[in-house]
Amino acid sequence: MSVLENWQQWKDFLGDRLHQGMNQGMNKETVNDLAYQIGDYLAKQVEPKNDQEKILADLWSVASPEEQHAIANMMVKLVQNDGTH
Fold it and tell me: Whole-prediction pTM value?
Protein backbone atom coordinates (compact mmCIF):
# COMPACT_ATOMS: atom_id res chain seq x y z
CA MET A 1 0.00 0.00 0.00
CA SER A 2 1.27 3.43 -0.95
CA VAL A 3 1.75 6.01 1.77
CA LEU A 4 -0.63 8.20 -0.26
CA GLU A 5 -3.53 5.77 0.18
CA ASN A 6 -3.93 6.28 3.94
CA TRP A 7 -4.33 9.82 5.33
CA GLN A 8 -2.70 9.10 8.71
CA GLN A 9 0.25 7.34 7.07
CA TRP A 10 0.62 10.30 4.71
CA LYS A 11 0.61 12.74 7.64
CA ASP A 12 3.15 10.59 9.50
CA PHE A 13 5.35 10.45 6.41
CA LEU A 14 5.20 14.24 6.02
CA GLY A 15 5.81 14.71 9.74
CA ASP A 16 8.90 12.50 9.56
CA ARG A 17 10.25 14.47 6.59
CA LEU A 18 9.51 17.76 8.37
CA HIS A 19 11.39 16.67 11.50
CA GLN A 20 14.27 15.36 9.38
CA GLY A 21 14.62 18.66 7.56
CA MET A 22 14.43 20.76 10.70
CA ASN A 23 16.96 18.51 12.48
CA GLN A 24 19.31 19.12 9.54
CA GLY A 25 19.00 22.88 9.96
CA MET A 26 16.23 23.82 7.53
CA ASN A 27 14.54 27.03 8.56
CA LYS A 28 10.77 27.55 8.58
CA GLU A 29 10.79 29.59 5.37
CA THR A 30 12.60 26.82 3.49
CA VAL A 31 10.26 24.18 4.90
CA ASN A 32 7.21 26.19 3.84
CA ASP A 33 8.65 26.76 0.36
CA LEU A 34 9.31 23.03 -0.05
CA ALA A 35 5.79 22.27 1.17
CA TYR A 36 4.44 24.58 -1.53
CA GLN A 37 6.57 22.92 -4.22
CA ILE A 38 5.49 19.45 -3.09
CA GLY A 39 1.84 20.51 -2.98
CA ASP A 40 2.07 21.96 -6.47
CA TYR A 41 3.73 18.81 -7.81
CA LEU A 42 1.15 16.53 -6.18
CA ALA A 43 -1.75 18.63 -7.46
CA LYS A 44 -0.42 18.49 -11.02
CA GLN A 45 1.09 15.00 -11.20
CA VAL A 46 -0.47 12.64 -8.64
CA GLU A 47 -4.02 11.31 -8.53
CA PRO A 48 -5.56 11.76 -5.03
CA LYS A 49 -5.86 8.41 -3.26
CA ASN A 50 -8.32 9.28 -0.47
CA ASP A 51 -11.07 11.75 0.36
CA GLN A 52 -8.77 14.13 2.23
CA GLU A 53 -6.33 14.33 -0.67
CA LYS A 54 -9.23 14.94 -3.07
CA ILE A 55 -10.39 17.89 -0.96
CA LEU A 56 -6.87 19.32 -0.86
CA ALA A 57 -6.52 18.88 -4.63
CA ASP A 58 -9.85 20.63 -5.20
CA LEU A 59 -8.89 23.51 -2.92
CA TRP A 60 -5.45 23.79 -4.54
CA SER A 61 -7.01 23.92 -8.02
CA VAL A 62 -9.12 27.00 -7.22
CA ALA A 63 -6.61 28.79 -4.98
CA SER A 64 -4.44 31.72 -5.98
CA PRO A 65 -0.66 31.27 -5.53
CA GLU A 66 -0.90 33.13 -2.20
CA GLU A 67 -3.69 30.82 -1.06
CA GLN A 68 -1.70 27.79 -2.21
CA HIS A 69 1.17 28.96 -0.02
CA ALA A 70 -1.29 29.26 2.87
CA ILE A 71 -2.54 25.70 2.25
CA ALA A 72 1.06 24.44 2.20
CA ASN A 73 1.83 26.32 5.43
CA MET A 74 -1.27 24.81 7.08
CA MET A 75 -0.17 21.33 6.03
CA VAL A 76 3.20 21.94 7.69
CA LYS A 77 1.39 22.97 10.88
CA LEU A 78 -0.93 19.98 10.61
CA VAL A 79 1.89 17.43 10.46
CA GLN A 80 4.39 19.03 12.84
CA ASN A 81 3.17 16.76 15.65
CA ASP A 82 2.84 13.67 13.44
CA GLY A 83 5.42 11.14 12.40
CA THR A 84 7.26 8.38 14.16
CA HIS A 85 9.86 10.72 15.79
Answer: 0.81
